[in-house]
Amino acid sequence: MRKNILHHWSKELSYEIRKIVEIAKIVENFWQKIIWENIWDPVAKWEKIPEWMKKIVQKSCENDVIYWYCPTKWLEETRKFLAKNNPKLNPENIIFFNWLWDAISKIYKNLAFDARIIWPNPAYSTHSSAEAAHAWSKHITYKLDPKNKWNPDLKELENKVKFNPNIVWILVVNPDNPTGAVFKKDVLEKIIKIAKKYELYVIFDEIYEKLIFDDKNKTLLSEIILDVPWISMKWMSKDLPWPWSRCWWIEVYNKEKDKNFSDYIDSVLNSKMLEVCSTTLPQKVLPKLYLSPEFEKYRKIRIEKYKQRADLAEKIFSDCEKIEIVKPKWAFYLSITFNMEKFSWNEKISLENKELQNFIDETIKNSDWRFDKKFCYYMLAKTWICSVPLSWFNSHFEGFRITLLEENLEKYEKILNTIKNFIKKF
Questions:
Q1: 36, 42, 223, 330: which could join 175 in a potential S-S bond, CB 3.0 to 4.6 Å?
Q2: Domain residue limits at 262
Q3: Cβ-count burial of 123 within 10 angstroms (0-12 exposed, 13-18 middle, 19+ buried)?
């Protein structure tokens, strides 16, 4: 044709967490059902939807207004509810979106092309893919250190900010996905001070904040923010087992402190207006769900359940010298890193089924594949457990992520022991 229509950086728009599903479906055809440890969906892992939640949603569906278009920013009463106990938050500065990608893509696409966001390493791939594609350039990251409980390397962060004038935002994911870390107040305050010192904006992805194991360890950005313009990301779909609710919003703080920031937020809203509105049902029921006397009891039950699974994982993997784990401080994920001196980069696993062996060997023959990706593909073919390599989170560390979602504790223990035994034999 006349001209190449493929954008040079389109390859950065990759979501490898689901990409491995394509391979797993092929592996599944060989005779065994896959154990899905690659992605968050508690309903798929048979978490029971509480009856009180069902009744609230069902009752709301009887109201005709559930089926209309809602205002672009969202329903006024819901925004007022979210801002009610937060004196720093103006209800007008809450904007709702359809799902995660809708919010993240608009936040990145409305940036000037040379305005960069520095984000953690490892980092959730939707953030990293969108930022790299926006900037037409490689990622800029600061390290989270597994040897320091996945805390950020603040010295590296400040040096990169200081010597790269294109960095205008700092992204913090707290609680963190994929590491399972929850950062202490003093760490977050130091990040805010760096942002203020170098006149940067900040984005805090706080979508898991209601699922922290110990509320005493929780520090929201709204509690420590100075006069730095910033955005907090929230998501009801994590607080309750309702993934398809697509209920995501941003809270904008200190908008009036900086005209450029204010104009940028207006551009995000204007791009949202082109889509008419977000979905109405979850917006309408959100206050009722959060205000239900059952919600807090249910939240605590879930937290205790996930904490029990995290404790079990720590116990089972404690005697495996080939790996290191930092016990997660919130649901739903556990990241495991490899002690690479204990592994051979070129090692292969022998499979009983030769056709499956040939398929996996052919799939991973690319020489630039990271070790952890090869490991996860071999583990998939050998144990039928589908996990996610840490390298898919743009991590410098070799390792993989699994979930804490399996409802059957006996089955979950078996999964963990199967993984441990595979690691020891690899």
A1: 330
A2: 51-291
A3: buried
